[in-house]
Structures are given as C-alpha cells and as structure tokens.
C-alpha cells in the first residue's frame, strides 16, 4: 500500500482489492492521514471546478461573457450554452438551456461577422414569423433579443430544439425508398398547407433537404424561416433562396404559392436520386426517373418550369399525393436502382435486371430475393401484399400479422434466416418506445426497410433503433443475416421479378 | 410519471455521494466508518425532508455539513480515535473571513494552473470534477478514450495542480 495506491483509492480509480485496502487502512493511522490529505485535495479540486466556467466548445476556462479562445457565448440572455451545433461565417447555432431547464436551439448572428442589412433583416424576419406560427412541424418561438452595441452587437433567436437530423445528412448512409419520399412529401405539404392557409399567406422560400429535419420518430420539422416572406409585402423583390431548389422566377424576386412546391419537388428529387436537382431538371423531363408512373407525374408537376403548370396550391398537391400509389412499387424501384440512373431509359432489359439482381444478391441479398426465399411457393399477388407495408394503407393488426406470417413462412423455408428474423423482431420490439403493445407500427416498416437492404444495416442506422447494446446486437445480426442469405441465394436460380398485380 | 421526492433524493445521492464521502474521509476516519456516516447523513436529510423541517436544500453543501457534524460527534465519542481528533481542525462555527479569502486564493491558483494544462486534460478535469456524478468511466465514454488513458491524464493533472497549490502556499 503506497501513496500512489492511496491516491488512486481516493480518486475512485484503485484497481486492486478495495476491501483489503480498506481493512489495512482501518488499522493504519498514518495511511489514513495520507488518505485524509488526498481527500482534502480532491475536495479543493471539486470546489475549484464548481467555481470555474468552462467553454462548452473548447473547454478553455472562461472569465467573461464569452470564450477568449473561440468566441463562444457562455450565458447569452440567461440561456446557458451547452454545446455548439453549427458554426459558420454568419454566426452560430447553440444548444442551450433556459431558466426552467428546457433545451432550446439558440441562433446567434454576430454583426461583426455578417455586417449586412440583408442578414440582419433575415434574422429579424425569422423571429417575426416564428413568433406568429404554430404548427407541430415548426419549432416553437421562445425569445429573441440582442446583446452588445455597435460592431459588437449580437442577435439571438431562441426556439424549441428539434431533436433530429437534416435529411441531406442522411443521404450518405441511406437510400430513400419511394414510400419514404411519399411520407416526407405528405408531411412537408401539411406544413405548406398550413402556411398557405394563413392570412396573408406565408411562403418559406428556402425549402431544401438541409431545412427539413427528421426526428427520431420519423416526423419531419421544417426549419429556417430566415427567408420566409408574406405574400404582398414589398420585400419580395430581394432574391433569397438556395440555388438548385428554387424556381427560376424566384431569382427575379417573384414568389407565389407554387414556389415552395417547386422547392419541395426539387428536394424530393435530390433525396430520391442523390443527385443535385438542377442536374436532373435541366433535362426538362423526368422520364428517366426510376419511380412509378404516378410518382413521376407528381414530381413533374411539382417541378414544372412554368408556375402555371405546377400545382396551384399545397392543398392541391396534398390531394394529389393522397392518390399516389407509390409505396407498392418500392420493391421493384429498389431492385432497379443500382443498375439504372434517372437519365436511363425506362424499359429495363432482362439482362440488366438480372445483373441488378445479382449485384443486390452478392452484396448481401435484396429484398426481392429475401421475399422469394420466404415465399417462393406463394402466389405473386400474395407476396406483393405481404410486403405492402405502407403505414397509411394497412392497419396495425394486419401489419403485425403480416410480419409474423412472413416470419413463419421464412422459418419453414429457411430455419436459420427465420431464427435471425425472429431475433431481429424481438430486438426491435425491445428497443421500441411506441405505445402499441405489439409494436407493429414500428416493427414492420423497419423490418421492411431492413429487409430491403437485407443485412446491410449499418451500426449508425441500428443505433437509431435503440440503445448502444441493442445497436451492437442488431449490427452483428445484420452481418450474420447477410452471410446466411448470400449462402442461401447461391443455390437459387435468379429470375426477373414478375409484374406486380394490376390495380 | 411524476417525479417522487425519493427519486429526487436517489438522484442527489447518486450525484453527490462521492463528494460527501470524501469530506468525511478527509477527517481521517477509516473508510468503513466514513461510509456509514455518509449513509447516516443522507438518511437524516431524507427524514428531515419528509417531516418538513428542511427549509432549503442546497446540495452537496447541506449533506457535507451534516456528514461532518456526525463525523465530529463520532470522533469526539471515540476515545481510541483521540489521536486522530487532535490532528484534524475543529469545524468552523461561522465562515471566517481569512479562511474565505484563503479558499478563494486556492481556487484561483488551481484554475490558473489548470489553464496551463492541455485541452484534453481540461476536458477530463471538467468531466470528472465539474460534472455531478462524473467518473473516469463517463469521461472515457464521452471522450472516446480508454479508461487507462483517462486515469493517466487525471493523475498527471492532479499532480500538476497539487504542485501549484503547494508552491504558492506561504
């Protein structure tokens, strides 16, 4: 028992037998005096730490209102900054806590960094709009204020924190299926319907994937109203927006109800194809887009070059999307995606289809192969029905039953794959926070999504499903599933999928 | 689910128990006895809270005062520990101005020395000492470093700060 051991003991880091050391200490006053000395030091360090203010960004010790090293604000307007979300040339976005302990997103605009009237006007405009708007998909306004004077002026806008990630950030790790695109479009259109229903009508003017945040539960929030505009105001002559997502007339400062619809269409194209929308739209036609005909028509109308050719309002677009039959084609769209680009001809040859299938199978198996493995003796129509998992089309019980039915069929055909799927469902159910006891609402779409990539789930994606332990297990399961399917497919003759049943 | 008072106490104990234990250990008591006294201090506070006799709950200060009060009583009662009792100072009756100034100077010295440490060392220090319930394990998870590395950084930082305190002490 030397001094180092006693120091580690006091710090709670002693790795030896603590009980034995404590027994020794009980009979050794000299050692206890050392422990008392170390404990005193520990208390003094804690006192010092309690009295110190650390920069939430660089951990430097801060004496004033902001960090001398990196300039991050410490307690602007009484909000305690916890971390920096975004930092750019114009300012920063912080995660902070208000006096009640609630987390807020605190936007900071530093005049010295962005000394333009346009930037300040955008900031004030956003505060003005957020104050007036009330929609579950729009972050709630909390406060706006400014600190400092002259060139040191900083403007702040506090709004409810949206716990989510921008859609463009998901592009690197996620292929959006047609069904997901429809879901996103529906949610954004709901917001646009609300904005256009206000009097006077509000136009966001900067709809793009970076401004659409997806929360953990899959709902979308529309953020950044710095470019928003009230129809009829004189500020419309200023060009605001993001190139690639805004319609051509917006460059001239002309905006109307169709402006946000065009931007939404461009955003959906980006998500679907992972290519900049202007590259696709400069071709003038979306015929090469690898989606169902109704979806193509919907996107074509959203992104029409002339405003008169677009949907006249968000209400009209919302009604149109309700009639879309897109999710049912997700299987085929997914199989075709690796082999075709939006510019490629619509008709896919038999050989390219087989090649595409082979790519999917070799890379861990595809949804199609998965379903064929499970249901190869079933009718094509019933197979199609089994995987028709759109949340708005099938009720909870039916979807829960579908998952279990598929699981049973799979277990009969291929015991190992069936067992893995059972394990997977149990894990997802275990991690799911929804109120539905059977968890079908959460489980089945996730199984479908996961099955579509059949074993290609990444750890990051798995992490979104639950705790790190569950994520680790899911990722491991995914790898096992991938191996299992690859082996299983090697013995199955590959053929092109039959057409889905006519509607 | 509404938060029950007992849940709040559980949370408070989880966050501050270590500091309260150290404050008793600093008096020279054996670890086992220090742990018992710490536990007794928490139990007393929870009972006082239940009976409504606590006006203000400032933690960990209140728990530390309670624990040290119990510890001094214990030491005073124990004849065999007289030697240790003689070695430790009496509990201050009221804040002594000189002592308060001394404490402030100590804190300033520690912070000045901390400012000269590496950013990682400062991070580790903040996560362990300035975060309630912070441990080497939580710091390792947060910083993505091994527990061994955190231990090493912490020991080095602590020695640096101890030296700073010792050098400046008149």
How many DSSP-defined strands of chain B?
A: 0
* pLDDT averaged over residues of chain B: 81
Spatial gap, N to C terminus of chain A: 81 Å
Low confidence ranges of chain B: none
Largest sheet of chain A: 5 strands, antiparallel
Percent strand of chain A: 5-15%
Number of extended strands of chain A: 10
Tell me what you see in this structure.
The complex is a heterodimer of chains A (503) and B (170). Chain A is of the alpha+beta class and 503 residues long. Chain A has helices at residues 3-11, 18-26, 29-51, 117-132, 167-170, 178-197, 257-273, 277-281, 293-302, 314-322, 330-336, 350-362, 367-375, 380-386, 396-413, 415-431, 440-453, 459-463, 468-489, and strands spanning 80-87, 91-97, 103-110, 141-147, 154-160, 164-166, 202-203, 212-215, 220-222, 229-230. In chain A, the strands form 3 sheets. Chain A has a 5-stranded antiparallel beta sheet, with helices on one face. The longest helix of chain A is centred in the first third of the chain and has 23 residues, at 29-51. The radius of gyration of chain A is 28 Å and the shape is flat. Chain B has 2 domains: 5-87, no CATH class; 97-168, Orthogonal Bundle (Arc Repressor Mutant, subunit A), CATH 1.10.10. Chain B is mainly α. Chain B is globular and about 50 Å long. The chains are: A alpha+beta (503), B mainly alpha (170). Chains A and B meet through helix 1, helix 2 and helix 3 of A and helix 1, helix 4, helix 5, helix 6 and helix 8 of B.
